[in-house]
Specification:
Elements (H helix, E strand, L loop, with lengths): L1 H15 L16 H14 L1 E9 L4 E5 L5 E2 L5 H12 L9 E2 L21 E2 H10 L3 H10 L3 H10 L25 E2 L1 H13 L5 H12 L17 E8 L6 E8 L6 E9 L8 H18 L1 H5 L2
Antiparallel strand pairs: 1-2, 1-9, 3-6, 4-5, 7-8, 8-9
Helix pairs in contact: 2-9, 3-5, 4-5, 4-8
């Protein structure tokens, strides 16, 4: 009876501390109920649907929530497009230095970098940087032409065993997709797996991989999303995505806690109504839930909180 009372006492104390006993020593495929409940509560408060897929590569602990459901991708799809260009450059050493000329009527709705170079054009490498670090739509369209259109991105995705990535339109029309349209979509799990392969796998050669990592780290559009949910001093490389309707607010990222293995994260969000607002706060909040959960199973992460 004394032993039973002691165990009950420990259980109560751990729960008061906000620690799930299952989180410690759990297998990679297992998830704590508390994480699922927190994500479900966050989703319920958001007025929409939340999709999460994450992996702590230090111990292969996965956290998933609606991870195999389809969501509009928004501009997170640009990572696949730029990676496809980088892959081509592995066989064509001159590709990234090739200068692309374009005209004013090539400009789209979001052109923070390309609009400055109508007279001198931009190299393919510069277009890649603009597409990732600044989400420049014209830059991505010019790169997509070199891939044979949106179908070229789908072909590259299939080559890295991503069966769920589906791009149907050029930019910015891809941002018109809705949760019901089944266009320009993917699943959180598929996007997380693809980002994992591109950043930590051998799909790209080291020089191409480092370029992609640098552009992701230099992204200027994600300060209020995943980056807002990690502790100060952690390094994040991310690519955001948004939609014109349904408040679509996405972010995919690689997170480097100091002196720890990286965490790969995909968070997709879409509202239930066409006029729903974007919810960057939901992305940041979901990130905090993930980081706190991983701190329970990874001492290195816990030491950095």
């Amino acid at each position: 009876m004394k032993k039973m009372g002691y165990c009950l006492f420990c259980f109560i104390v751990l729960n008061l501390m906000g620690i799930s006993m299952q989180a410690f020593g759990s297998k990679p495929s297992e998830q704590t109920v508390s994480v699922q409940e927190q994500l479900a509560h966050l989703e319920a408060s958001s007025g929409g649907q939340l999709g999460v897929a994450a992996i702590d590569t230090g111990n292969n602990q996965r956290i998933q929530y609606r991870a195999n459901e389809y969501f509009p991708m928004g501009c997170t799809s640009k990572v696949i497009g730029v990676a496809a260009i980088l892959k081509k450059s592995m066989k064509n050493s001159q590709l990234l230095q090739e200068r692309v000329m374009y005209k004013k009527n090539d400009l789209t709705n979001w052109t923070p970098i390309t609009e400055k170079h109508l007279t001198d054009g931009m190299t393919v490498a510069e277009l890649c940087e603009a597409a990732i670090s600044y989400s420049d739509n014209t830059a991505m369209n010019l790169l997509t032409k070199k891939l044979g259109g949106p179908a070229g991105l789908n072909t590259f995705a299939r080559s890295i065993q991503d069966k769920h990535f589906k791009l149907d339109h050029w930019w910015p029309d891809e941002a018109l997709s809705s949760p019901e349209s089944r266009e320009d979509e993917s699943t959180p799990a598929a996007m997380e797996a693809s980002l994992h392969k591109l950043i930590l796998g051998n799909v790209l050669a080291s020089s191409q991989r480092e370029m992609l990592i640098t552009w992701l780290k230099n992204n200027v559009t994600g300060d209020s999303r995943i980056r807002a949910g990690v502790p100060k001093g952690w390094v994040v490389g991310d690519k955001t995505g948004s939609g014109f309707h349904y408040g679509t607010t996405n972010d995919i990222a690689v997170i480097w806690p100091p002196k720890c293995a990286p965490i790969i994260v995909t968070i997709f969000y879409s509202g239930n109504k066409k006029e729903a607002p974007k919810r960057e706060d939901i992305i940041a909040s979901a990130t905090r839930i993930l980081i706190n959960a991983y701190a329970h199973t990874n001492l290195c992460i816990r030491k950095n909180l």
